[in-house]
Automatic annotation (TrEMBL):
Name of the molecule in the record: Uncharacterized protein
Alphabetized UniProt keyword annotations: Membrane, Mitochondrion, Mitochondrion inner membrane, Repeat, Transmembrane, Transmembrane helix, Transport
Biological processes, Gene Ontology terms: mitochondrial L-ornithine transmembrane transport
Family the UniProt entry places it in: Belongs to the mitochondrial carrier (TC 2.A.29) family.
GO molecular function: L-ornithine transmembrane transporter activity
GO cellular component terms attached to this protein's record: mitochondrial inner membrane
Topology of this chain in the membrane: Multi-pass membrane protein
Residue stretches of each Solcar repeat: 5-93, 103-192, 212-298
Keyword Transport on entry: yes
Domain of life according to the entry: Eukaryota
Ranges that cross the membrane: 65-87, 107-124, 210-232
Signal peptide: none
Lineage per the UniProt record: Eukaryota, Viridiplantae, Streptophyta, Embryophyta, Tracheophyta
Length: 317
C-alpha cells in the first residue's frame, strides 16, 4: 500500500479510537460537566460525584448519563481520527529515516501540540453542544438552563444566537497542552513499561504476546489520560462555565473566569469534577490506545521507530 493508503489507515485507526472513548467514558464526562457547571457558583448543588450520579440515574435513568453523547460520537470520532492521524504523520516526518529507540520530546511535543491545536476548531462546536445538553435535566436547581429538545435544536439555536466557537481559545490551549502531555506520557510509559510486560517473548504464543501488548497499552493509555486531565483541568472548568453560562452577557474572559471561580469556591473549584474526570480518563484512554494500536496493526501500519512499542505480533494465532 502506498503512502496515501497508509495515511488513510492512520486516520481510520484514530476514528475507531474515538468511538471507543465515547462508549467507555461519556457517563463519567456527564458527571464531570454537571459538577463543573453547578458547583462553581458559590453554593454546591452536588456534594460529590457519587451523589451527582445517583441523582442523574434517579431522575433520568441511564440515558441521562449519555445525554449529549450523539454530538460526542461525531466530535470525538473525528477529533480522535485527526489527532492520532496528525500525530502519527508528524512523528514520521520529523524523525525522517533516523532510527531512535528512546522517545524524543522534540518530536513528540510539536507533533501532539500541533495536532491538538488543529482539532480544537473541530472539537469546540461539538463540546459546546454536548455540555449544554449535559447540564439539562430534571429538578429546580438547573431550571435556569435553557432546555433543548435535542442536539440538533441545541446546535441550531446556539449557532443562531451566539455562534459555534464559544471559548475556542480555552479549547485550543486545553488541547495543545493536554495532547503534548498525553503523548509524552504515553510514549515514555509505553517504552519503559513494555519490558516488564514482555521481557522475553520467545516462548510465548501469538495470543499471549497480544495479551501482553494489550496490558501495556491499557496502563500506558490510562496513565496518559490521567496526565492529560491533571495538567489542564482548570482550563476545562473555565471552558465549561463559559460554554454553559445561562446569561449570554456573562464574561468570556478565561483568566477572569478562573479568578472568579477561585474567589467563590477556592482552589477546589478550579478542579471541580476531578474525581469523575480521572475515573473516566483511565478506562476511556486505555480503550482508545488499545483500539488505536490494534486497529493500526490490523491495517498493516508501522509506526515511527522510537514509538515501535505497540503491538508487534500477529493479532491471532
Amino acid at each position: 500500500m502506498g503512502d496515501a493508503g497508509d495515511v488513510s489507515k492512520e486516520y481510520a485507526a484514530g476514528f475507531a479510537a474515538g468511538i471507543a472513548t465515547v462508549v467507555t467514558g461519556h457517563p463519567f464526562d456527564t458527571v464531570k460537566v454537571k459538577l463543573q457547571a453547578h458547583n462553581t457558583k458559590g453554593k454546591k448543588v452536588y456534594n460529590n460525584a457519587f451523589q451527582c450520579t445517583v441523582r442523574i440515574l434517579s431522575n433520568e435513568g441511564v440515558k441521562g448519563l449519555y445525554r449529549g453523547a450523539s454530538s460526542s460520537f461525531i466530535g470525538l470520532a473525528f477529533e480522535s481520527s485527526l489527532i492520532f492521524g496528525i500525530y502519527s504523520q508528524m512523528t514520521h516526518a520529523l524523525q525522517g529515516k533516523t532510527e531512535r529507540n528512546l522517545p524524543q520530546l522534540e518530536i513528540i511535543v510539536p507533533s501532539a501540540g500541533f495536532g491538538g491545536a488543529i482539532i480544537s476548531f473541530i472539537l469546540c462546536p461539538s463540546e459546546l453542544i454536548k455540555c449544554r445538553m449535559q447540564v439539562q435535566g430534571c429538578g429546580s436547581a438547573i431550571s435556569k438552563y435553557t432546555h433543548y429538545s435535542g442536539p440538533l435544536a441545541c446546535a441550531l439555536q446556539t449557532i443562531k444566537n451566539e455562534g459555534a466557537y464559544t471559548a475556542v481559545a480555552l479549547q485550543l490551549l486545553r488541547e495543545s497542552i493536554g495532547n503534548a502531555v498525553f503523548f509524552s506520557t504515553y510514549e515514555f510509559s509505553r517504552y519503559y513499561m513494555r519490558p516488564h510486560f514482555n521481557p522475553d517473548s520467545s516462548g510465548l504464543t501469538n495470543r499471549q504476546k497480544l495479551l501482553m501488548d494489550v496490558g501495556s497499552g491499557i496502563f500506558s493509555g490510562g496513565l496518559a489520560g490521567m496526565a492529560f486531565w491533571s495538567a489542564v483541568l482548570p482550563l476545562d472548568v473555565a471552558k465549561t462555565v463559559i460554554q454553559t453560562a445561562p446569561d449570554r452577557n456573562a464574561s468570556r474572559n478565561p483568566l477572569r473566569t478562573i479568578h472568579t471561580i477561585y474567589t467563590r469556591v477556592g482552589l477546589g473549584g478550579c478542579y471541580a469534577g476531578l474525581g469523575p474526570t480521572l475515573l473516566r480518563a483511565f478506562p476511556a484512554n486505555a480503550a482508545a490506545i488499545v483500539t488505536w494500536e490494534l486497529t493500526a496493526k490490523a491495517l498493516g501500519l508501522k509506526r515511527a521507530q522510537f514509538a515501535e512499542v505497540c503491538v508487534d505480533t500477529v493479532l491471532f494465532s
